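Summary of Year 1 activities. Much of the first year was spent building the evaluation harness for sequence design. The harness presents a backbone, in tokenized form, and records the residue chosen at every position. We chose the following record to illustrate the format because it has been used consistently in internal testing since the harness was completed.
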């Protein structure tokens, strides 16, 4: 019978193997995630016979909701090994994760699931729409004047943070980011090959990240 518990630092090799089995993410991304974003006290796992069969990871943020900073947690890396699916392990892990988050004082939980229907059945609600824009094969775009294309280095933190803040202040439920948070996010993008477009004549006035 599986044991459901919070994760430990020593679980990293098994958690990483499960992540890559389920999501196929690159070594570069997993190196970044488990060195910079993994929070064992905020993650949970289902373990049986020494093997981790299911896991849910958490990462803390502060959201601005109607201009009030609210402690929030992002649920990510929700995974169950293919051989152990259909046994309710994921549902129990999510329940433990949410209880653990409430106990630690987080008031809002959010995520970006691949298949929202799974979570709708658990009582979760959609709060935004999203879309993926893909460039058609064979079409060549000519970059506009004053646009620079580069790798997504965290050395751009000070340059981009004021732009992010000016936009985020216009929305409710936007993530509040310090310079440290912004730097971490840029390294997140860079870990999987994210590239940065910067527009500006006398300094950067707009930016976008793409893959």
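For this record, the design step produced the sequence shown next.
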């Amino acid at each position: 019978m599986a044991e459901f518990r919070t994760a430990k630092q020593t679980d990293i090799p098994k958690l990483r193997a499960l992540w890559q089995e389920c999501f196929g993410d690159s070594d570069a991304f997993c190196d970044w995630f488990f060195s910079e974003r993994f929070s064992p006290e905020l993650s949970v796992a289902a373990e049986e016979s020494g093997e981790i069969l299911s896991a849910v990871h958490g990462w803390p943020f502060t959201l601005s909701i109607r201009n009030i900073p609210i402690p929030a947690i992002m649920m990510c890396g929700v995974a169950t090994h293919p051989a152990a699916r259909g046994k309710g392990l994921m549902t129990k892990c999510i329940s433990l994760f949410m209880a653990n988050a409430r106990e630690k004082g987080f008031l809002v939980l959010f995520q970006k699931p691949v298949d929202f229907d799974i979570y709708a059945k658990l009582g979760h609600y959609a709060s935004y729409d999203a879309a993926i824009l893909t460039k058609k094969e064979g079409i060549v775009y000519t970059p506009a004047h004053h646009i620079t294309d580069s790798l997504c280095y965290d050395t751009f933190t000070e340059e981009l943070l004021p732009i992010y803040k000016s936009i985020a202040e216009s929305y409710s439920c936007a993530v509040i980011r310090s310079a440290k948070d912004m730097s971490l996010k840029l390294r997140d993008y860079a870990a999987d090959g994210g590239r940065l477009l910067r527009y500006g004549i006398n300094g950067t006035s707009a930016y976008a990240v793409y893959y």
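The CA atoms of residues 65 and 173 lie 5 Å apart. Quantitative recovery figures across the full test set are reported in Table 2.
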